[in-house]
Specification:
Blueprint: H1 21-27, E1 36-42, H2 48-54, H3 60-88, E2 94-100, E3 105-110, H4 112-118, E4 124-129, E5 136-137, E6 142-145, H5 148-151, H6 157-161, H7 164-169, E7 178-183, H8 191-194, E8 208-210, H9 224-233, E9 249-254, H10 262-274, E10 279-282, E11 284-285, H11 292-304, E12 307-311, E13 346-352, E14 390-393, E15 397-400, E16 406-410, H12 412-429, H13 435-444, H14 465-472, E17 490-492, E18 503-510, E19 514-522, E20 527-536, E21 539-546, E22 554-562, E23 565-573
Parallel strand pairs: 7-9, 7-10, 8-9, 10-12, 12-13, 13-14
Antiparallel strand pairs: 1-3, 1-4, 2-3, 5-11, 6-16, 15-16, 17-18, 18-21, 19-20, 19-22, 22-23
Helix pairs in contact: 9-12, 10-11, 12-14, 13-14
């Protein structure tokens, strides 16, 4: 599938950008020659109802491809002028400019003066710090050599405890499901992993990508990523079967796991989503009050239909110790959780031991997004998120070792790829399930531990692969039973934001090529602006429209005519 775009250039700026309070504090500590890593969130995002209407008859893979292309279109339209302005600054003021389409954000290192200038742009909604020095790998609490008793087992205990081997007996082993492991890299030469690596693609990719060194060799250099990869799909060729889904495919995504590498985390999410990964697993974390850019990326992963298993952290029994992105809201809300805010692709994972006790190191909820910049302030102390969402074995886990053999580690990092492996089994059994359906399945079918229902220690309970797959087999997925109305030639998304101050962003979808007229009309039906009028290809078209001088406050309508069909979207302008 190919989708095309129309570029509308933003030619004016106003005082609408926001500098995050944490960044304002940071700017006070920097000298005139130092550059600060920042994310600049651009205005414009996907309207999920519009996506649902356009993709109502697509399967999961087709919807994922459509959403990726739509997000790229929006980023190109939204970020072109921002990047052009950044490139005008003299050397020493800006460096490392990077477009991130999954979050619709521009990453760069910039001087305080540049940050203040850019905050005045009407197409930038937030500028926030992008390199938390405490952000990075969630290191295991223990790493040790595997004992002979552990190595003598044909299948590791965590695999059998969650009944994954019983799922294999049903004929499901994760075959055809790509799992992106966002970590320290993967030892793709390990006997248990080599045959299941994603490689030799038409685009020339070999095993994945290294976003830290920016090359095509994602070889592990620490061991953590190899251990996590083995828990997802280690097939036992070297002697011990460690993988939950030994038929799945591993896409190795090596990132900056040392400190402040959040931009590479988002790049890895983008790569996986763009190259067909249905599941991502990530054992990385950033402490603090919530990272808006990470959250936007996770929200768009949900729209694309990519499941993201994220470690809760190893901060122990204190409440509110979940790390970002694990602090993002889930894709499905358990009946014990009051739904009143946003959702994302993140399913946060806690750790249990072989006796189904909570691991002492496993981070606990609740999670709040209160005090963060709007609209990412939707979960207050009075209505927080319950976290983690689910738990899995994470103590004394035997898995593949960097350079060969096996090693034993403990941490929520060990439970997180196990959940990803279970999701691969679910998608093998029912390929078109949504992320929300998958989350609901694993939570509802889990073994309830601790206090009844979902709570801030175990989440919904300890995951059960067999019960989850059995439940998945009975559900209808995307494209299996289309609902709704077939797109009648053209669809328009909601206007973002609405009310509009000076810049309106929206998308249209045209089923067929032809002339498309896009205009703005007042309540009397008088056209006050022509946004576009030209021949267009079928597909997605993204727009940014700057409200002209002289247009007053009031109610207006964006009207689109194409191939005999007309659609209208209402917007309110308040300057």
């Amino acid at each position: 599938m190919k989708y095309f775009l129309v570029l509308l250039i933003v030619t004016a700026a106003a005082f609408s950008g926001t500098i995050h309070p944490d960044l304002l504090d940071l700017m006070q500590t920097y000298s005139g020659t130092e550059l600060i890593p920042v994310f600049m969130l651009a205005q414009g995002d996907l309207d999920e109802e519009w996506v649902d209407a356009v993709t109502f008859d697509m399967n999961r893979d087709e919807r994922q491809e459509f959403v990726v292309d739509a997000l790229k279109n929006i980023a190109l339209v939204s970020q072109t002028e921002i990047i052009s302005e950044l490139e005008l600054y003299a050397p020493g003021n800006v460096s490392g400019i990077l477009s991130l389409w999954l979050a619709n954000a521009v990453y760069c290192e910039a001087s305080p003066a540049v940050i203040r200038d850019m905050s005045l742009r009407s197409d930038i909604t937030l500028i926030e710090p992008a390199a938390n020095p405490e952000a990075g790998l969630i290191y295991p609490v223990e790493v040790r050599e595997a004992t002979q008793e552990e190595l003598d087992k044909a299948i590791t205990w965590n695999v059998t405890l969650v009944n994954a081997d019983d799922v294999w007996a049903l004929g499901y082993d994760g075959s055809g499901v790509i799992v992106g492991v966002i970590d320290t890299g993967t030892d793709y030469n390990h006997m248990d992993l080599h045959n299941n690596m994603w490689h030799d693609t038409a685009a020339g990719y070999h095993y994945g990508w290294d976003f830290y060194d920016n090359d095509n060799d994602p070889m592990d250099d620490y061991g953590h990523g190899t251990h996590c990869s083995g828990t997802v799909l280690g097939d036992g060729s070297e002697g011990t079967e460690t993988g939950i889904a030994p038929g799945a495919t591993c896409m190795a995504l090596r990132i900056n796991y040392y400190s402040g590498g959040e931009a590479t985390w988002i790049q890895a999410m983008e790569f996986g989503t763009d190259n067909g990964a249905a599941v991502l697993t990530m054992s990385l974390g950033a402490p603090g009050t919530g990272d808006a850019t990470l959250r936007v990326a996770e929200e768009n992963l949900l729209t694309a239909g990519v499941f993201h298993s994220v470690a809760a952290g190893n901060s122990g029994s204190g409440s509110g110790t979940i790390l970002s992105s694990g602090d993002c809201p889930p894709p499905w809300f358990h009946p014990d959780q009051t739904y009143h805010g946003g959702m994302s692709a993140v399913v946060t994972v806690g750790a249990t031991d072989s006796g189904d006790n909570i691991a002492s190191f496993s981070s606990r909820g609740p999670v709040t997004w209160w005090g963060s910049v709007a609209p990412w302030n939707d979960y207050s102390d009075s209505q927080p998120l319950i976290d983690p969402d689910i738990s899995g074995p994470g103590v004394d886990i035997v898995s593949t070792q960097w350079t060969g053999g096996y090693t034993t580690m403990s941490g929520t990092s060990m439970a997180t790829p196990l959940v990803a492996g279970v999701v691969a089994l679910i998608l093998d059994a029912n390929p078109n399930l949504t992320v929300a359906q998958i989350d609901s399945i694993i939570e509802v079918t889990s073994l309830d531990l601790g206090a009844a229902g979902k709570e801030n220690t175990f989440g919904a309970g300890r995951i059960d692969a067999l019960a989850a797959v059995q439940a998945a087999l009975s559900l209808v997925g995307l494209g299996d039973n289309p609902q709704g109305v077939n797109p009648a030639g053209i669809l328009i998304s909601s206007i973002n934001p609405n009310p509009v101050n000076d810049l309106a962003a929206f998308e249209i979808y045209t089923e067929n090529p032809g002339r498309v007229d896009v205009g703005v009309f007042d309540v009397s039906g008088r056209r006050i602006a022509i946004i576009s009028s030209e021949e267009m290809a079928a597909g997605t078209h993204a727009y940014n429209w700057m409200v002209p001088q002289g247009v007053g406050n009031g109610i207006y309508f964006v009207r689109v005519n194409a191939n005999g069909s007309t659609v209208t979207q209402r917007m309110t302008i308040i300057k």
